[in-house]
């Protein structure tokens, strides 16, 4: 558990903590990992303004300085905000956020790639749709192979870098459009399914609501009640807040 200081910490938070202990200035904190890290899902229970949500997404990314890792949060903030407050459908929200003037061209190119791959996987006239391992092949094909001198190159489409993780998450969101099937398919592909799952859960959670989480999960997850109680204390989710639709 992080509050005890003995829990697992990934590379970038660990490096940033060391920098803080060494007195590194705040504006120089963070490492250069290009791995996607979405850490602001709870912000949607605090802010209803899109700009505030985008600011929150970048503020909590002080552990990263790589621009690719930084850019995924604002984009996904726009997607979820459109789902919650503009009554858009999934693809409409994803495309609308993609075309927003504030969305970086790198992100735009990755989302376009995911949209195209979803269409290809659903088209019975395309070879990809006939493949048994269609999702695995779809993700692998959306990013480069990274030769690091080992026996096999890293398949970046399934690994942690944002260039593969973001389009992979969008692919699962749009192909399955339901939380449980999307999470199951994402897990089966492997790679950095944990990073993808946060984006998948955040977007499809906004789209479907908490009811999308099966009762069997709610009653069996060890910390479900603990986190549920925390959420009930958030400004937009408190009783009487007038935001019951969230």
UniProtKB/TrEMBL annotation:
InterPro entries: Ribosyl_crysJ1 (IPR005502), Ribosyl_crysJ1_sf (IPR036705). Binds 2 magnesium ions per subunit. GO terms for molecular function: metal ion binding. Keywords: Magnesium, Metal-binding. Mg(2+) binds at residues 192, 195. Signal peptide: none annotated. Its cofactor is Mg(2+). It comes from the Eukaryota. This is ADP-ribosylglycohydrolase. It comes from Vitrella brassicaformis.
């Amino acid at each position: 558990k992080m509050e005890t200081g003995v829990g697992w910490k990934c590379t970038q938070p660990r490096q940033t903590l060391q920098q803080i202990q060494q007195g590194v200035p705040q504006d120089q904190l963070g490492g250069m990992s290009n791995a996607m890290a979405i850490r602001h899902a709870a912000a949607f229970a605090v802010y209803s303004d899109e700009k505030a949500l985008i600011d929150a997404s970048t503020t909590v990314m002080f552990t990263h300085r790589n621009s690719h890792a930084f850019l995924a949060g604002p984009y996904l903030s726009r997607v979820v905000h459109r789902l919650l407050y503009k009554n858009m459908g999934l693809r409409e929200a994803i495309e609308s956020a993609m075309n927003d003037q504030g969305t970086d061209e790198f992100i735009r190119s990755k989302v376009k790639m995911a949209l195209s791959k979803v269409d290809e996987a659903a088209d019975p006239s395309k070879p990809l749709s006939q493949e048994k391992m269609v999702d695995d092949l779809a993700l692998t094909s959306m990013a480069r192979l990274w030769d690091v001198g080992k026996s096999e190159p890293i398949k970046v489409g399934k690994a942690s870098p944002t260039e593969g993780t973001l389009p992979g998450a969008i692919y699962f969101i749009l192909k399955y459009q339901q939380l449980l099937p999307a999470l199951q398919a994402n897990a089966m592909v492997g790679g950095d399914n944990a990073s993808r799952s946060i984006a998948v859960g955040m977007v499809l959670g906004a789209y479907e609501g908490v009811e999308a989480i099966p009762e069997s999960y709610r009653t069996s997850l060890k910390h479900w009640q603990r986190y549920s109680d925390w959420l009930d204390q958030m400004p937009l989710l408190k009783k009487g807040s007038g935001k019951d639709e969230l």
